Description:
Strand content of chain A: 15-25%
Shape of chain A: globular
Order of helices and strands of chain A: EHEHHEHEHEHEHHHEEEEEEEHHHE
Number of helices of chain A: 12
CATH superfamily of the largest domain in chain A: Dihydrodipicolinate Reductase, domain 2
Largest interface: A-B, 45 and 45 residues
Number of domains of chain A: 2
Largest sheet of chain A: 9 strands, mixed
Strand order of the largest sheet of chain A: 13-12-11-10-6-9-8-7-14
Oligomer: homotetramer
CATH topology of the largest domain in chain A: Dihydrodipicolinate Reductase, domain 2
CATH architecture of the largest domain in chain A: 2-Layer Sandwich
Radius of gyration of chain A: 21 Å
Distance between the termini of chain A: 45 Å
Amino acid sequence: MAENGAKRIRLGMVGGGTGAFIGYVHRIAARLDGDYDLVAGALSSRPEVAKESGKNLGLSEDRIYTSYEEMARAEAARPDGIQAVSIVTPNHMHFGPAKAFLEAGIHVICDKPITATIEDARKLLEIQPKNGAKFLLTHNYTGYPLIRQARELVASGALGKLRVVQAEYAQDWLTEAAGDDNKQAAWRTDPARSGAGGAIGDIGTHAYNLLRFVTGLKTEAVSADLTAFVPGRQLDDNVHVMLRFEGGAKGMLWASQVAVGKENGLQLRIYGDKGGLEWSQENPNYMWFTEFGKPRQLLTRGGSISVPPAASMNVRIPSGHPEGYLEAFATLYSQFAAVIRGEGSDFERLLPTMADGVEGMQFITASVKSSQNDSRWTRLADV
Amino acid sequence: MAENGAKRIRLGMVGGGTGAFIGYVHRIAARLDGDYDLVAGALSSRPEVAKESGKNLGLSEDRIYTSYEEMARAEAARPDGIQAVSIVTPNHMHFGPAKAFLEAGIHVICDKPITATIEDARKLLEIQPKNGAKFLLTHNYTGYPLIRQARELVASGALGKLRVVQAEYAQDWLTEAAGDDNKQAAWRTDPARSGAGGAIGDIGTHAYNLLRFVTGLKTEAVSADLTAFVPGRQLDDNVHVMLRFEGGAKGMLWASQVAVGKENGLQLRIYGDKGGLEWSQENPNYMWFTEFGKPRQLLTRGGSISVPPAASMNVRIPSGHPEGYLEAFATLYSQFAAVIRGEGSDFERLLPTMADGVEGMQFITASVKSSQNDSRWTRLADV
Amino acid sequence: MAENGAKRIRLGMVGGGTGAFIGYVHRIAARLDGDYDLVAGALSSRPEVAKESGKNLGLSEDRIYTSYEEMARAEAARPDGIQAVSIVTPNHMHFGPAKAFLEAGIHVICDKPITATIEDARKLLEIQPKNGAKFLLTHNYTGYPLIRQARELVASGALGKLRVVQAEYAQDWLTEAAGDDNKQAAWRTDPARSGAGGAIGDIGTHAYNLLRFVTGLKTEAVSADLTAFVPGRQLDDNVHVMLRFEGGAKGMLWASQVAVGKENGLQLRIYGDKGGLEWSQENPNYMWFTEFGKPRQLLTRGGSISVPPAASMNVRIPSGHPEGYLEAFATLYSQFAAVIRGEGSDFERLLPTMADGVEGMQFITASVKSSQNDSRWTRLADV
Amino acid sequence: MAENGAKRIRLGMVGGGTGAFIGYVHRIAARLDGDYDLVAGALSSRPEVAKESGKNLGLSEDRIYTSYEEMARAEAARPDGIQAVSIVTPNHMHFGPAKAFLEAGIHVICDKPITATIEDARKLLEIQPKNGAKFLLTHNYTGYPLIRQARELVASGALGKLRVVQAEYAQDWLTEAAGDDNKQAAWRTDPARSGAGGAIGDIGTHAYNLLRFVTGLKTEAVSADLTAFVPGRQLDDNVHVMLRFEGGAKGMLWASQVAVGKENGLQLRIYGDKGGLEWSQENPNYMWFTEFGKPRQLLTRGGSISVPPAASMNVRIPSGHPEGYLEAFATLYSQFAAVIRGEGSDFERLLPTMADGVEGMQFITASVKSSQNDSRWTRLADV
């Protein structure tokens, strides 16, 4: 049972069989705050893996499925059927399950990017979810407490009118051609499974979503230069983007999977005419905040600041005791649980939606297109 | 069910009612890896709080107790009774429950320090646990992956013969006299509930345990200077200790609750004749490692290093995605679950034991005694 | 006298009267290693300031000039005339003095950017210096020891084939419109005195020169988006540039004078297929160096590394004792002194030249042009 | 000539011949701000080295001496004789020259520690300098701008009543026994030349002086544990000291030359009942300042802060452009020049004096004595 006395939500999972990374992360996120019980799954398209994985996770045999369609049907029919499902398959396998479960009246928690193509993303928007089934896109970095605080600081006017945004997400794990044994690398560098974007879809979209979440700026157009540095690689592994926002602010976004020495260097820096903010995911419990003409301040997660931390920040333990990636991820899960239970109207405006997913696809698509057109400025509205 | 297909362990809790901090932390730790189900509790000594708290946590009414003695008796008698219990009460209330549950054949997970007095700690050592019931002391910082790696590096000889250890744990939350509304501060500054040590028992003992865990050095004697800076405070809020170890190494330990600007500044620095290590809890996914005459290296949790990470490190997510305090805490829980299930012989030598608890009390007692004797060197063996 | 027994070089200065910033810096740089004696000056175009300033600096009256033309003539005619001159006037006043002194056979040390316009820069290239008078452009950041080491690491192949370069120089001092009393701001935001570029000429050109110096990459083309955020400002105060290098490497460059919280945030990050380097001017005695698949190493100025530090690094004091901006600046001066004395053939290839100055102007001019053409890729060769 | 129009002070040097480290540093410090001209020297006790070194530094032959006594006599007799002398010999060779020059009416700039023994230090105090000749002890770290600011912040009450001071100076260069070719190591580990203290005299005394300079606290007593870790070494290479100050504040001081990975890790942390300060020499342009209950602020050298920087801070270049060790050293030289010229009454109270030197010797002597007496608390007043 959840900490607040509410009954746990019955959860299913599509994808996430033995050896999968992100499915494991979703399960921890679902457990951490005690709001979910995993009771069903179509964990792999390979029946034997699905069964073995389900057994290991303690699912009862009749709720281990080998097809998501069957799972959606069967679970919707059970009185104790799942109330929500987590979709943790490769990108091209998001659309089908999302549609099936929403139309079955089951809430959907979907990994990002929302789909492999913008067409699929738009089709998803047109679906009529049964019984008001809701959708959560796990742009998990938006769950970091200081990211929530950054958003509030911007909204409060503490930075003044925004001028410049610098976003980056740099890794090095694809510096060399991936071996055949690297499942994670294999599908992420395969256009059939990832879509038209490589690094831009896998991590650029996280950086983009984060800057949008915190600043609220609307993107007008992008000018992009995408590169595949590793010989033979079909998708970009390094991304340079310049951005123009409505109202005149400007931005740069760098995403790379070949930046030797970077692990998960997601960083956001925002400057307005009154103040500046800087945050890095690799040490996420600290954020620089400067008011023009005053010394830099190092804000800490849940630490001293004039404005009390918002409930939405979900600070579990005192400042100085670090929380991390899994807690941020869990915050999305637990606040979505509140939304499902009808307790979370405040959270609803914070959690990443289908519309965010579509906009992420616009960003990917416009960037790819711009890059193909010699970096011509390309409007998001035009793709 | 746990990720590996094992059945979840049925868990009870003593203390940890509504508003308690450390009980909440223990519950997250128990849930995170999916190895436990909380099914019973004596969550408060006040019956109405116990009931309300138990209800909020979804315990069935017949397993909400108002006395731990009753709980030990009743749960031991049930076929579906708890297999393990978490004791999260103030220090002076550790001994009683620990004894009761161990003698009832129920595994005990006990917050630190083990007891309020060294006499109690020694009495605990003499208890005959029924059915081989096991005991875990939650010196949670030992669960940090890089702390495990530090221990392995030291043991491997990478630092050579150890010479100097610098340990510190600095906070500032007790800089001013605690208000009446601060429950956490109230019992921690009260000798009746905390024992003879203030900062030294609350956080000094963490720093001490950590240096012992990583270095394996045996402490010969301490010379201490304890101070209560805040007027009217009965227990030390700042601790200076010099240490002498068997074999000639020397150390310093600083613990403070009045160091303005420090949140949970637990830091460990170790130097041998071949290398040095430095780690800080506030950014725990990084550790400095220097081989003499070579550049400093920044090791990352689960990141690149010549030696592969040990299984005991329990790295859940890739390097660069930060894990924190709760994950380290959860590692103690999940590895103790493995021990309970008989799968964890490798973990048993790593998890903090009753003997560690007794030694922690020796450290506290010897330090207090030294401080009372004008910092005279005081042997741990003599207290 | 210099530390090595050589006679000091007789130095003059154009610009740098009382209250000027960069002239003062040049004088410290000239003194620090003992290679120069300042003996003449045309320190201001206002005669009374020139006299007062010259007197304060101890110049004898007959060597205080009010026009650089006169100074060049008179000094060239004296048997004890200056051997070198430092030009520290605003950008549009570099060309005239540089020409005059070179043609008078006097070595020139010139602040950057070389001139206010690319036309002037090219005319400078065509000058025939008398008696082989030499020219030094004070791109002072190239004098930092770790920048020299970075250059050697790249040249040695330690990073492999370069792929990505991220350069930035962010400040915040022009966040608001400059008051009339701010001389520094006044000429830097005035096209008549600065040339067509604002931030791009003042600091972008430093970042650009630095990346060129360290990587040796040749720039093919730039795509730029320049903005003047402060109302009424005529020159850019924020600069976004994407770069394409010969051989396929890509880069981004950000320069800003409105990034609240940044003081002199000059930063260079370089990634190849074997390794990565990261350096920041605000803490210049440290540099990250990562070989792919190994832990990050923190190199220190003059500290441990497999390759011994090159003489060109000019490390004056042991690692851990910080050197800074003035020492880097002084290194240019003292190595140029060696060149003047005929001892410095090794240094000659390292010190920034007139050709570097012309290329810097190409960068500025191409970026301004690209920005005016909706960020169209613009070849440096075409401006 | 100095920047302010004053005539340069004629300077001599004792010690500092070719290959000497600290003499070279003193010369840069003397040159940097333009306040001195080196015109005479007894640079080595070996005549041929003295001559060669003097020649390299451009001294005229008749002012190259082979004995300091002769130099004091001769220079005092010359109309153009030196006005000040820098003493940069090993510790045991400070007393003789200091006495000789002071009694000859020549100002003395002396490296630290003041002498090799406390007896010598006290004898120095009794000397009657001719013509009011003044004495500067180059505790150079007191010249760092942020150290000056720290002192002002403490004095202003911004930290409230001081409680805890943590000082440390850790290096690793003596981790192994020094080879015969290491001149620096040789005299520093030799009691005949260094005095009774090793690390404590060489670097512990710097840390101690710095904490005294900034806090103004008076030391009551020390409890020390000194160790020589390297086999065969006669002097301590690691120092642990606990301190008690008048008024009740407490401190710890750690100095080490065997802390692998540390270069010149001089660090000062100060906590009062209202605020805290933290500063580290290896990145000296930044200082943490926290007011209790507010976010940490990162002050920068010359950067934004409510109180304008004091003139005594001697900030030469804008914040964000790092200054370092040599600039701090030069500040002592240039402010002593002002004192010599009679312009520097404000500086006189800031510059380290003979009394500071004596107290430093008391600290060394009391610590050595305490360590020999099983760390018994030893009063500085009693040695």
